[in-house]
Amino acid sequence: MLIANLIEDVIRERGPLTVAAFMELTRYHPEFGYYARASQRSGRAGDFFTSVDVGPLFGDLLEVQVAECFDIIQRSDETRGSASTVDLVEAGAGNGRLSTDILRAARRSGRPWYERTRLHLIEISAAARAAHRAVLGDVADRLVWSDSTLPGSFRGVLIANELLDAMPVHQVVMREDGLREVYVDSRPGITTVEGPPSTPRLQHYLDRAGVQLEPGWVAEINLRAVDWIADAARRLERGFLILIDYGHEARELYSVSHSTGTLTTFHRHRQAAVLGPAADITSHVDFSSIRAAAEGEGLRTLGFLDQTYFLIGILNRTGWPAGRSTGALRTLLMPGGLGSTHKVLLLGKNVGQPSLVGCSFRQRVT
């Protein structure tokens, strides 16, 4: 009841909240927020399931792509005569399980980049950050940064696995007389009301994406994700961004097939289309706007494809991973599950236009 009471107090003081403000308050409040109360929310005992929850296999395969990216950077370093230290940055790292799996796979494979790597774990939850060194265990010597914000600058590889979908979004609805925004009110209990857009950026976003909503359509607009990718691009001196999330191109996301919106809450692996203060809240990512914002800051798109095809490209290079179950691999590749719902966007800066192993099988988005 504490978070519900907090919401009522805030609404009483400020008036109805945008959905973005409601998500910010219920998820990231330092004491009562959804992510503040535990170091891990995914897995069978949590509210949702991610590729990392399948086991170390996802990190094992992702390490192959990370290693190739570091090799490209090193070859460029040798021609420039510059330093060879590289950064592995994981944004939205949770308690650090994915980076742990990647680093252990690198050390097990004898990768030269392991000893040259500085690990940066970016996580807004203090509880999750407190668990970083314990989760990393025997690879904790690589950790140099555990914070809620990105380092001022870095060169290497940034990974964000299911980060953008969790960022607070504005929800809008098109009416005959124009765009309206959805607000959260308490009368008591959580309810929603419509009002004028809280910022002109919402209409500007749709205009830039070339989106025309029809009357009655509901949509989510993730201003935070666009700002975040632009900021990350500016901080990256040279290297790669690997973004893994569920979502669509703008033409599909803002179409009749998603005209009721994609905002969803998850609690104990059950989903609902209503907001709740004690559950995970997500929405699908608009990859068109993410890519445009990244390219606007000097990044190049190197690939955009289903997770299925990304991982098959890696498997074709490495062969079957020794000691890993076929069940785990099927879960990661399965169409209709993680394999096709999750997309991989690969971006580069000051590295040319390399052909990456993860894009070597087929660049297809379903």
Architecture overview:
By secondary structure, the chain is of the alpha/beta class. It has a domain at about 50-165 and about 225-255 and about 285-360: Rossmann fold (3-Layer(aba) Sandwich), CATH 3.40.50.12710. About 35% of the residues lie in helices and about 25% in strands. It contains 13 helices and 16 strands. The protein has helices at about 1-15, 20-30, 55-80, 95-110, 125-130, 130-135, 200-210, 225-235, 250-255, 285-295, 305-320, 325-335, 340; strands at about 15-20, 85-90, 115-120, 145, 155-160, 170-175, 180-185, 190-195, 220, 235-250, 265, 270, 280, 285, 300-305, 340-350. The strands form three sheets. Strands 2, 3, 4, 5, 10, 14, 15 and 16 form an eight-stranded mixed β-sheet that branches. Strands 1, 6, 7, 8 and 9 form a five-stranded antiparallel β-sheet that branches. A hairpin with a 2-residue loop joins strand 11 and strand 12 (about 270). Helix 3 crosses helix 4. The longest helix is centred in the N-terminal third of the chain and has 24 residues, at about 55-80.
Large-scale geometry: globular
Number of strand elements = 16
Mean pLDDT equals 90
Number of helices: 13
The CATH top-level class label of the domain at 51-166 and 224-256 and 284-359: Alpha Beta
Find the structural class using helix and strand composition. alpha/beta
Using the coordinates shown, work out and report the CATH topology of the domain at 51-166 and 224-256 and 284-359. Answer: Rossmann fold
- Sheet with the most strands, sense and barrel status: 8 strands, mixed
The proportion of residues forming helix, as a percent range, comes to 25-40%
Radius of gyration: 21 Å
Content of β-strand? 25-35%
Low-confidence stretches: none
Termini separation comes to: 41 Å
The sequence of SSEs as H and E is: HEHHEHEHHEEEEEHEHEHEEEEHEHHHE
Overall CATH architecture of the domain at 51-166 and 224-256 and 284-359 = 3-Layer(aba) Sandwich
